[in-house]
Write a structure and sequence with these properties.
Length: 271
């Protein structure tokens, strides 16, 4: 079973973050070398800082290609609010741009990948957040249709029969910070907890968005619940970033699902 490296919120295009991400890639190569093939790299959104600067899509695409060439065969991405617009104002036209660049195969969500007996289900937490009346703040919404497909996916034989299941998305599912939350978090909770009650374990829930890098292990009976923070350390507004416990962190975790004990998951220092 491959281990997972979880990173998030790269914000390529902001200041010199393209160079910062190059340094991250270089350190990943140095630290993992030939072992890169033993990992799945999960990136939970905000790959770029502003979708209106379309060149940044190609910058990140090139960098992910570089990672693939260095042995990271499995790289899974989902979009964040900045990938579809400015961060607060999204635009439907960027959905196709993002999908064409990052998804050669399946373009509907959940994105399902079965990798060495682990089912990965990636969600688009911007799916219902691109209407004219959503054009302020940085909330997320999965929508009923995507949640129904998630429920169906979890009950499919090929997903049920996997040893482990990982669900990943951009928006933080637990943190009810005003104007920043996943609006249909309770519905997501119901889908996941109902599955767990039927014996379909959810072994990890991975997300970003808050840039704080905290873990909430055990929430919703899910042993690993991780916010990866911002790998490039993108600061948030200064009125938040000075508050103790709320500062930006880069929590790049190596998750070994074969280990029952989540405290054995390590963090990589890449900057
Ligand atoms: Fe972000």
């Amino acid at each position: 079973m491959k281990k997972i490296i979880h990173i998030s919120d790269l914000h390529i295009g902001y200041e010199d973050f393209s160079e910062r991400f190059s340094k991250i890639i270089s350190n990943l190569k140095t630290q993992l070398g030939e072992q890169a093939r033993d990992y799945v790299l999960v990136i939970t959104g905000d790959l770029i800082d502003n979708a209106h600067n379309q060149d940044d899509f190609f910058v990140i695409q090139k960098k992910l290609e570089e990672l693939k060439q260095s042995g990271f065969e499995e790289i899974l991405v989902v979009p964040g609010n900045h990938d579809y617009g400015t961060g607060s104002r999204g635009d439907k036209k960027f959905v196709k741009v993002f999908h064409d660049i990052f998804y050669q195969d399946q373009k509907t969500f959940p994105r399902k990948n079965i990798i060495e007996n682990v089912a990965f289900l990636g969600l688009d937490s911007m799916a219902e957040e691109l209407n004219w009346y959503d054009e302020i703040w940085a909330e997320g919404e999965l929508g009923n249709e995507q949640l129904q497909r998630l429920e169906a996916n979890l009950h499919e034989d090929e997903v049920r029969s996997c040893a482990k299941r990982v669900v990943y998305l951009h928006h933080h599912p637990f943190d009810f910070r005003p104007l920043h939350q996943l609006k249909d978090s309770r519905k997501l909770k119901k889908v996941l907890c109902d599955a767990i009650a039927e014996g379909i374990s959810i072994d990890a829930l991975l997300y970003g968005h808050n840039h704080e890098g905290k873990s909430h292990n055990g929430q919703w009976d899910i042993p690993r619940c991780y916010d990866a923070g911002s790998a490039t350390l993108k600061p948030r507004p200064s009125y938040i970033d000075w508050v103790p416990g709320f500062q930006t962190k880069a929590s790049v975790r190596v998750i070994d699902l074969e280990q029952h004990d989540a405290t054995l998951d390590k963090e990589l220092t890449l900057l």
